[in-house]
Design a protein that fits this description.
By secondary structure, the protein is of the alpha/beta class. The chain contains 8 helices and 12 strands. The protein is about 40% helix and about 20% strand. A 5-stranded parallel sheet has the order 2-1-3-4-5, with helices on both faces. Strands 6-7-8-9 form a 4-stranded antiparallel sheet, covered by helices on one side.
């Protein structure tokens, strides 16, 4: 049974989401205060956290940031009644895995949740791809989702790991920002390609010795990014 935490201050939305999550076989816990929601999220393991942006006690952005400081893997689906571009970008860049703007259809909500749950499942082994990718001091363990650089572990967010794993598994192949959004986030966030830039910049900051001359993740001018095929 999938455990889901809802942090939302609208009781009608809580009831609606709880009913449909229950139909999916989920065990739902709901809290209406941001600070209480954060404490619960940090104390109990959940397969999904549904997080409203505007909350009493502590807002969704702060909750997301604080969770990602200690929990890199639990998926976060952010909800908001505000539709400005900056909110969507901020939500994704603070570590949310997906984003829905109110009002949203139940069908869309269920589709997003199912995609997240599928990603939670253990991937089928791929005999064509080694479990451990190694490139001049950088090791990527795809099974354990573990990154080490010069024998030192590097902590990445889920999206940073997925970006790095995708690029490193296909060295030399250039990906556009839009394509990376589609492959890593699972949806076509039209107009938010610069979100990829922010994630790439943070990723480089963690694995590159010299940001002005990156060694692993290279820019393909006019297209997007690629992993250095000469390592």
């Amino acid at each position: 049974m999938q455990k889901v935490l809802i942090i939302e201050d609208d009781p009608e939305i809580i009831e609606l989401l709880s009913i449909h999550l229950g139909d999916l076989g989920c065990a739902v816990t709901a809290l209406m205060n941001g600070q209480e929601g954060l404490q619960e999220a940090m104390q109990t393991r959940y397969e999904l956290i549904i997080l409203d942006l505007m909350l009493p006690g502590l807002n969704g952005m702060e909750i997301c940031r604080k969770l990602r400081q200690t929990d890199r893997h639990t998926p976060i689906l952010m909800l908001t009644a505000r539709s400005e571009e900056i909110d969507k970008v901020m939500g994704l860049e603070t570590g949310a895995d997906d984003y829905l703007t109110k009002p949203f259809s139940v069908r869309e909500f269920i589709a997003r949740v199912k995609v997240i749950f599928r990603r939670n499942e253990e991937p089928e082994p791929n005999s064509a791809l080694p479990a451990l990718l190694q490139y001049d001091g950088l090791e990527i363990d795809l099974d354990k989702r573990k990154i080490t650089l010069n024998n030192t572990r590097v902590e990445l967010s889920p999206k940073e790991f997925e970006l790095l794993a995708l690029l490193a598994a296909n060295p030399g192949k250039s990906y556009s920002r839009k394509r990376l959004l589609n492959l890593v986030w699972g949806y076509d966030f039209e107009g938010y390609e610069h979100t990829v830039n922010s994630h790439i910049n943070r990723l480089r900051g963690k694995i590159e010795a010299d940001l002005s001359v990156p060694k692993y993740i290279l820019t393909t001018w006019g297209i997007g990014y690629r992993f250095n095929e000469e390592l």
